Amino acid sequence: MALLDIRNLTVGFDGPAGRVDLVRNVNLQIRRGEILGLLGESGSGKSLTAMAVLGLLPSRMKISGEILFQGTDLLGLSEAKLCKWRGNKLAMVFQEPLTALNPAHTIGRQVAEPLRLHKRLSRRQAHAAAVDLLARVGLPRPAERAGDFPHQLSGGQRQRVVIAIALACDPSLIIADEPTTALDTLVQRQIIELLVRLVEDMDAAMVLITHDVGLLAETADRVRVMYSGSIVESGPYDRVFEGPAHPYTRMLLQALPQGAAGTGAPLRPIPGRVPPPDCRPTGCSFRDRCPQAQADCERTPVPVELEPGHEAACLLLPQVVR
Amino acid sequence: MTLNTLEIKDLVIRYTRSGGLFSKRQVASAVDNVSLSIAPGRTLGLVGESGSGKSSIARAVVGLERPASGSITVEGKSLAGATASELRAYRRSVQMIFQDPYGSLDPRLRIGQSIAEPLGLDPVGSPRDRVVEALETVGLSAEAATKYPNEFSGGQRQRIAIARALITRPALVVADEPVSALDVSIQAQILNLMKELQQTHGLAYLFISHDLSVVEHLCDDVAVIHHGKIVEEGTASEVLRTPAHDYTARLKNAVPVMGRRVRGMQQTQTAPQAVPKNEDRN
Question: How many beta carbons lie within 10 A of that of residue B206, not counting itself?
Fold first, then answer.
C-alpha cells in the first residue's frame, strides 16, 4: 500500500465567470522510503497540491478526490482530527524559513512544541529532545542556541531549525516545498544533503516540490511534471530527464541555460506563457505553446504508458512511440 | 586603446551600524578595494552569495550608494564632483534593471509613463515616439503604453523594465538578478532578448547573479566576489570551467546538476573524503 495515495485530486474555486480549477485530476502515489519530485513552474499547481495534502487550503477552495494517507482519507477528516496528523506523522518544510518560524519564541520552544503537543512530553523532556534534534540537523552549540530567537540565526540555520521541527515526531512523510530556493548556493547544498540524509536515516518518504531540474536529478527517485494544474509526465527521474516524452518536459529541459553555456547559441525558450487557469485552451492546455500541436490536441489527453512506470499525457504520443 | 564603458578603481563601500544603545558605532566594509572594467559591448558577470557586496557595487555604479573611496567612471564620466548637467548625462548613460519585476514598476502609473520617466527633460525627440520605439525593441506592442503593470505577467514586466532602461540610450545597463524571479521558460526569453539588444545597441552589461549557468551563458567575463573582495576574475569559460580559487570551485560544485546523485550516497559511499560535511559555515 502506498504511504500517500492521491486520487483524482481537483482543487478549484467559484470565480465570477464560473468554476476555475487550479489543480486538475492529479494522481500521485508515494511509498515509504521514497523521494518523489514534483516539478513545475509557478502556477502549475504543485504547491496547491501540497497544501491540499496538509489541509491548509483556504476554505473557499473546492476540493474533490481522495488523499489517502496510510489508508485514511485526509479530506474526510475534521480539522481537529487532521491536527493529530499534521506536524506529527505528516510534516512540512517550506521555502521561507523566516516566515515559517515565530519571531517571538525561542527556537528551542518551537522545536519542542510538536513534542509537547503530539507526544505529550513534559516541558523538560521536550526541551532536551529539542536540543538533540537541533544537534541532529547540524546546528552548532545546540544547547546554547536553543535559547536564540529566529532573527539571531542565518538563513541556513533557520532552515535547519524548520527541518528539526519537521523531524520532531518521526514523520513518515515530509512535504518539502522549495526548501532550498531562498538560500545561497553553498547553504542550499548543505541543506539538501541534510534533508536527503535524514529522510534516508528515518526511512521516511519525501515529496520534494521545486522548479529546479538539477535538484530533482540529484535527489528524486521518481518525478512528476506539472503544467497548468495537471500532471503531464511521470516516471523514474532518469527516464524523465534523459528521455522526456511530453513536449512540455522536453522544451523545459531545452530552455535551461546549462545546455547552451559556452556555445554562444541563443537559448530555446518556450514561446508564449502559461495560460491563466480561467482561459486555458480546451483539450491539452499546452497546445498553444506546442510546436507539434495538431487539430487532435483539442481533445483532453490521457496518460499514455511508454514503459513501465513512465507515463505522459500527450495525444501525439501513441503515434510517436509506436 | 578604446575607453572602457565602465571603469571601477579601488572602490570601497562601508556601512555603519550602531552596536547597541551604549556601544560605539561599528563600521563594516561591504566592498573592499574592488577594481573592475567593462569594454564597450561586453558583459561582465559579478558572482557571489548574498552579503558578498555584489549589489552594493551595482548600487554604487548607478549612484544609489556613496562610496567611501575609489572611483567609478562610465564612458569617462564620473559621479564624484559632477555638476548638475554632468550628473544628468551620467544617469542617462547608466540604467538599471532590478530582480523583482513586480516591485520595480509603480502600480499607479501607466506603462508609458513609467518608461518615459528616465527621459526627464531630455529634449531629444518626442517622448511618445521614444516610448513606442522602446516597447517595440523589447517585443511589446505600442498599446502596452496605456495599460497598468497589473495587466502584465512577470516576464512581460521584465520586458517593460528593460524598455525603461533602454529609453535613455545608455552605454551601460546594470542588471541585478534580472531573471532570478522568472520561470525557466520565461528566463530564456529574457536572456535571449538581453543578448539581442546588446548586439543591436552595443550595450555593456554589468550582470549580477548567483546562478552560474545563467552567468556562463550570458557573460564574456566573470568576477567572483567573496566578503567584499574579488577573489577571481577572467573570461567566463576560464573561471567557471576551470576555477582557480577554492571559493569559486566550491560555488561551482554546490550547483545541482544532472548526472550526479545526492540520493543513496550513504549506502554507496566508497571515498570517505567525499562525505558531505554539514557543519554550518555561516
Answer: 27
pLDDT tens digits along A125-160: 999 999 999 999 999 999 999 999 999 999 899 999
The string of pLDDT tens digits covering residues B112-121 is: 999 998 887 6
The H helix count followed by the E strand count for chain A is: 13, 12
Give the ipTM. 0.84
Grid coordinates standing for A54? 496538509
Please report residues of B whose CB lies closer than 8 A to that of A273: 153, 155, 185-186
HSE-up of residue A152 (Cα within 13 Å, Cβ side): 12
One-letter amino acid at A248 equals Y
Q: Which residues contact B161 (CB under 8 A, 6 or more apart)?
A: B97, B98, B101, B104, B105, B178
Contacts of B47 in chain A (CB under 8 A): none
Q: Please give the C-alpha separations between residue A263 and each of A250, A251, B47, B213, B277, in angstroms, as whole numbers.
A: 20, 18, 20, 12, 34
CA distance B82 to B88: 9
> CB–CB of A162/A135 below 8 Å?
no
Give the pTM. 0.89
Model confidence pLDDT, tens digit, residues B224-279: 999 999 999 999 999 999 999 999 999 999 999 888 899 887 654 433 333 344 44
Nearest by CB to residue B184, choosing from A193, A219, A256, is A256
CA dist A210 and A38 (Å) reads 6
pLDDT at B276: 41
Contact yes or no for B263 and A35 at CB 8 A: yes
Higher pLDDT pick, B281 / B49:
B49
Tell me the helix, strand and coil percentages in chain A, rounded to 5: 40, 25, 40
Residue A212 with chain B: CB contacts under 8 Å: 256
B264, A187: Cβ pair inside 8 Å?
Answer: no
Amino acid symbol at A31:
R
Interchain contact B83–A (C-beta under 8 A): no
d(CA A234, CA A254): 18
Quick check: B225 and B52 in contact, CB under 8 A? yes
Determine contact: A194 vs chain B, CB below 8 A: yes
Judging contacts by C-beta atoms under 8 Å, the chain B residues touching residue A154 are 280, 282
Residues of B in contact with A155 (CB under 8 A): 50, 282
For residue B59, pLDDT beyond 60 = yes
Residues 103-162 of B with CB under 8 A from A: 153-155
Size of interface A-B (CB pairs under 8 A): 145
User: Given this model, what pLDDT does residue B18 score?
Assistant: 67
B20 touches chain A (CB under 8 A): no
Whether residue B191 and residue A267 make contact (CB cut-off 8 A), yes or no, is yes
Name the phi and psi angles at B115, rounded to 5.
-70, -35
- In whole angstroms, give the CA distance from residue A311 to residue B116: 50
